[in-house]
Amino acid sequence: MTNMSYLETAAKFYSEVAQTPQVGLCCVQSSPLQFPGLKIPPQMQEMNYGCGTTVHPAELGNEPTVLYVGVGGGLEALQFAYFSRRPSGIIAVDPVAAMREAAARNLAIASEKNSWFDRSFVEIREGDAFALPMPDASVDVVAQNCLFNIFEPADLAKALQEAFRVLKPGGRLLMSDPIATRPIPEHLRKDDRLRAMCLSGALTYQEYIQHLVDVGFGQVEIRARRPYRLLDCQNYNLEAPLLLESLDSVSFKVLMPEDGPCIFTGKTAIYTGVEEFFDDYAGHILQRGVPAAVCDKTAAKLGSLMPAEILVTNSTWHYTGGGCC
Ligand SMILES: C[S@@+](CC[C@H](N)C(=O)[O-])C[C@H]1O[C@@H](n2cnc3c(N)ncnc32)[C@H](O)[C@@H]1O
Whose CA is nearest to atom 23 of ligand 1? Predict the structure, then answer.
């Protein structure tokens, strides 16, 4: 145990929980996302090891090819297949043999319960987040739920670069991960088992977003941010409790704007002046009294340009489109 790298500890841990499901390991809600006609086998539900959801129907038109990293019990692979009903529409990779076997078993059960689902829709491959078994620019969507948070920062950068590499231009990275409301102290960060359990590797919101921007995602949208777990003082040897949140996001492989990334967190800008509308001649026209969704960068610019006449609302941490950039 002592000579194991943290990634080996994680692989061992996931092999254990593939063979003996640990109900409630990571999830934040007891019933997973349901769709009409989708029947989730209980075996799959027990292995819901995601901390939010990465399945956003609005991103899944035209039967996209989805590369799913870290298959777990196959729950989200099945949910994605609901939208890509064709052989190998979903390619799910996982380095842990027991997890691949569990997912294959659960998906076979799902094919008996769901007349629309054919087992061939999800192809499970041995693979690793750091060397995805796919050519450059070959998939529409990459998704990962509650995996990248266990990676140390340099490995997280590698995994994000891989996701960016395999995405087609305009493709989307759908992620859900815990984030920390303040930096996690070193004694917890170096606890490999806690890290594998998604309890001690989380970055702060700013660090997490910066990693996405650093690999080149020009637009990031926050879909949800909610409480995930509380690390208490007694069990985690902390001076004050530390709240972890789960963050669902969609990152777009689009050109980085010259003035920096567009990060949408649900802010709006509202023109409150006397004219019919306000035009900043940089692509943003605000009708008087009508909230316009804006990215954080634009919100800051508009708010400082005319603070008396433009009201900027707070982040709702729930953004689903209709932006400014
Ligand atoms: C917390 S579970 C999440 C499972 C699934 N995404 C879900 O939402 O239920 C992490 C998954 O990532 C897999 N995994 C561990 N290390 C990995 C790596 N280096 N590359 C890809 N997957 C990995 C584990 O075997 C496990 O299936």
Answer: 70
Rounded to the nearest whole angstrom, what is the distance from the C-alpha of residue 136 to the centroid of ligand 1? Answer: 22
CA distances from 253 to 11, 69, 168, 188, 222 (A): 29, 17, 8, 33, 15
Ligand 1 atom index nearest CA of 144: 6
Q: For a pocket test of ligand 1, which of 33, 75, 94 has the largest count of ligand atoms closer than 8 A to its C-beta? A: 94
Domain ranges for the chain: 6-252, 262-312
Asked if 18 and 99 count as a contact pair (C-beta separation under 8 A), the reply is yes
CATH 3.40.50.300, domain 6-252, yes or no: no
- Whether 28 shows a pLDDT value over 80: the answer reads no
User: Which run of H or of E encompasses 86?
Assistant: none
Q: Which residues of 130-165 are buried (b: 16+ CB within 10 A; e: fewer)?
A: eebebeeeebbbbbbbbbbbbbeeebbebbbebbbb
Q: What is the per-residue pLDDT across 200-249, written as a single tens digit (0 to 9) for each?
A: 999 999 999 999 999 999 999 999 999 999 999 999 999 999 999 999 99
Cα of 174 from ligand 1 centre, angstroms:
15
Q: Which of 14, 28, 40 to mutate to test the pocket of ligand 1 (most atoms within 8 A of CB)?
A: 14
